[in-house]
Design brief:
The protein is α/β, with parallel strands linked by helices. The protein has one domain: Rossmann fold. The protein is 34% helix and 16% strand. The strands form two sheets. Strands 1-10-9-6-2-3-5 form a seven-stranded parallel sheet, with helices on both faces. A three-stranded antiparallel sheet has the order 4-8-7. The longest helix has 18 residues. It is globular. InterPro entries: Glc/Gal-6P_isomerase, Glucosamine6P_isomerase, NagB/RpiA_transferase-like. It comes from Agromyces fucosus.
Length: 261
């Protein structure tokens, strides 16, 4: 069972994530982070940037791997995840740009881009902590419903609900690419620690299916139940459909302080 932590808001979640990552960096200066994009992890990245600045944490050796990338966006497009990761993670945190990788969405090399990314993650020693969001369809990364639980990095076709959700970042829904390259569920499960973030009532059904539902490819987020160290940090609205919410609150309130998340 994943550990479920219900917090007041996104800033409270960000403080928890920042504490955890700072502790990791201090114990392993070349830690490998799995980086999600979208609005969900932004408060966590902001909190981490503040901690790094305030505590003067040396992050020059920190490495990172983005979860996914659109296929076919031109180089330098502001909504490519390469640009987003640079703008929202690398620059604010002061990471070394050359140590942070994003899947290659160039159609000219897409046939081997997944295998190349898998090889790079393996060469880095694997991901130590993977930040995840979850979509309304239950997708993690861009692993839409029906994705194999053993899948590795590969090209996927985005569902219309996902394209509509992401349309807010583009001039129109038609501009959202139809395809992406994403770490597979099997890739994600290899990370040593999963931290899934979700906020708001729109995520409540997906969260309940991921935490308490059957483990099934129809709900990709449910794969976190197979992981030995998965932490789900959510607000009360996202927790609204959880049947065992009282136990989760009790377990968190009585957790030994030395365990962290």
């Amino acid at each position: 069972m994943a550990e479920v932590v219900v917090v007041e808001n996104e800033d409270a979640a960000g403080a928890l994530v920042a504490d955890t990552i700072v502790s990791l960096i201090r114990s392993k200066p070349d830690v490998v982070l799995g980086l999600a994009t979208g609005s969900t992890p932004l408060a966590s990245y902001r909190a981490l940037a503040r901690r790094i600045a305030d505590d003067r944490i040396d992050v020059r050796g920190v490495r990172g791997f983005a979860l996914d990338e659109y296929v076919g966006l031109p180089a330098g497009h502001p909504e490519s995840y390469r640009a987003v990761i640079s703008r929202e993670v690398v620059e604010p945190l002061g990471l070394t740009p050359e140590l942070v990788r994003v899947p290659n969405g160039d159609p000219a090399s897409i046939e081997h881009a997944g295998a190349d990314y898998e090889a790079a993650i393996t060469a880095a020693g694997g991901v130590d902590l993977q930040i995840l969001g979850i979509g309304r369809t239950g997708h993690i990364g861009f692993n839409e419903p029906g994705s194999s639980l053993a899948s590795l990095t590969r090209v996927k076709t985005l569902t219309e609900p996902t394209r509509l959700d992401n349309a807010r970042f583009f001039d129109s829904p038609a501009d959202v690419p139809m395809h992406c390259i994403t770490q597979g569920i099997g890739t994600i499960l290899r990370a040593r620690h999963l931290v899934l973030l979700a906020f708001g009532a729109a995520k409540a059904h997906a969260v309940a299916a991921a935490v308490e539902g059957a483990v099934t490819a129809s709900q990709p987020g449910s794969a976190i139940q197979l992981h030995p160290h998965a932490t789900v940090i959510i607000d009360a609205a996202a927790a609204a459909e959880l049947e065992n919410i009282d136990y989760y609150r009790h377990a968190w309130a009585n957790k030994p302080a030395w365990q962290g998340i």
